[in-house]
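Tip: read the tokens left to right.
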């Protein structure tokens, strides 16, 4: 049975949306870009599997979708799992599925507290649990390359076709047999094939390394953009607050803050 938690949005312990989203992506090795994208319900389903293995059928979860019907099905499975674990929490399924920020943000705040109260520290491989399925908002064919590359089954692509690895075949047993016969008949042909295979392996290794680097840089850029948006919004709130104060009631601190904010350099 799960530990129930009481949540109030007034507590000072709440994490920011950036911190919460980073926690979800770090825990599940997922690729959600915004809190609103948790409307798919997939993250909650797998986080419940982290806490209570087998409380729901992960094979029925749509991990990568942008269809509201799938959102509703995922969220209903999540609600059923909560009920099974005797959790006194009604999931606002219809509101979450609409993808509005405030609804999803408030619910994620509650779930983080619920997770912390019930997590026992056991190891969990999220990618293996979902059979290396990509997790994010969209469909596998519409995810960005950085999103597709976060799974163990993803491979770098070039010119729209999968990159062949050293030792891979093209599916033709006859051609492979012919090449083996040619290699046996003349050592020169075999040497050439071996050199080509070695060169191809190096090329694939280089492509994999560059793809991983691109993925890392994309994630860093995403974090920077999220941080920039977060702190910009904070500055806007400060500016609005100061401007709402009557001029005759503003002290030296307000004047200094405005001077810093409006400085040209």
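Filled-in amino acids:
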């Amino acid at each position: 049975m799960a530990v129930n938690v009481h949540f109030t949005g007034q507590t000072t312990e709440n994490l920011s949306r950036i911190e919460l989203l980073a926690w979800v992506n770090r825990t599940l090795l997922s690729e959600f870009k915004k809190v609103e994208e948790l409307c798919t319900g997939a993250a909650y389903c797998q986080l419940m599997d982290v806490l209570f293995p087998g409380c729901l059928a992960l094979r029925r979860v749509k991990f990568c979708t942008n269809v509201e019907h799938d959102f509703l099905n995922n969220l209903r499975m999540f609600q059923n799992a909560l009920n099974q674990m005797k959790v006194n929490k009604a999931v606002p399924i219809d509101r979450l599925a609409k993808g509005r920020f405030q609804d999803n943000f408030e619910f994620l705040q509650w779930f983080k507290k619920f997770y912390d109260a019930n997590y026992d520290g056991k190891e969990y491989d999220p990618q293996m649990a979902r059979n290396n399925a990509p997790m994010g908002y969209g469909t596998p064919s519409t995810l960005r390359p950085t999103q597709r590359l976060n799974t163990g089954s993803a491979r770098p692509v070039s010119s729209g076709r999968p990159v062949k690895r050293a030792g891979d075949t093209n599916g033709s047993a006859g051609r492979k047999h012919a090449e083996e016969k040619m290699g046996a008949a003349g050592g020169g042909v075999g040497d050439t094939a071996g050199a080509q295979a070695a060169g191809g392996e190096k090329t694939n290794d280089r492509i994999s390394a560059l793809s991983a680097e691109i993925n890392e840089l994309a994630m860093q850029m995403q974090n920077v953009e999220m941080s920039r948006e977060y702190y910009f919004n904070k500055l806007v709130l400060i500016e609005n607050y100061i401007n709402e104060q009557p001029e005759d009631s503003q002290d030296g601190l307000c004047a200094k803050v405005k001077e810093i904010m409006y400085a040209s350099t």
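The first strand starts at residue 64 and ends at 65. The CA atoms of residues 99 and 218 lie 24 Å apart.
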